[in-house]
Amino acid sequence: MEFGCIEECSECCVQREYYPSKQFGKIGVLILPEEKENIEKLAKLKKIKILILPRIGISENKKQLPTKILAYQLMGIEENGNTCPFLDTESDEKSTHGGFPCKIYETKPLACSAYPLIESKPIVLDQKCKFCKVNTWRVSM
After folding, report:
1. 110: Cβ–Cβ under 8 A, 6 or more apart, which residues?
2. CA 67 centroid distance within chain
3. CA distances, 44 to each of 37, 47, 53, 71, 114 (Å)
4. How far is CA 79 from CA 16, 25, 58, 76, 131, in A?
5. Full-prediction pTM beyond 0.90?
6. Separation of alpha carbons 100 and 91, rounded Å
7. Domain-by-domain residue ranges, the chain?
8. Cα dihedral sign for 40, 44, 46, 49?
9. What is the rounded CA–CA span in Å between residue 58 and residue 11?
10. What is the pLDDT of residues 132-141, one digit of tens each?
11. pLDDT one-digit tens code per residue, 50-77
């Protein structure tokens, strides 16, 4: 079965999850180190304010700050952490499925391209995704 966005849905670009708990706030979109510079250039080019924070890092010593960042997170623009800064919620334009369009769709991060696959062992589909909810009985991995 091929994935397809549900008509007028943009929820995956709006809603963020608390991770690992509400105490730590909402998590952003996973950005690989090789994607970070390109995302920053696109934001500057499109005059969009973004916040990218380290997400996963490693260090020689547990008491030391990470010496190498393995992944970053692109944070949402709302005070509560929701809504991707590249989601066009202001113009009257619509995506091909009638939802809000992505301002960087052709060069979006790998995490966005892989959605609704989520980080998990084993890899599973995001059950909050409207497509996955509607097609749960058809989807098997």
Report:
1. 30, 32, 35
2. 24
3. 11, 5, 17, 21, 25
4. 12, 11, 29, 8, 27
5. no
6. 9
7. 11-134
8. positive
9. 32
10. 888 865 544 4
11. 999 999 899 988 888 888 999 999 999 9
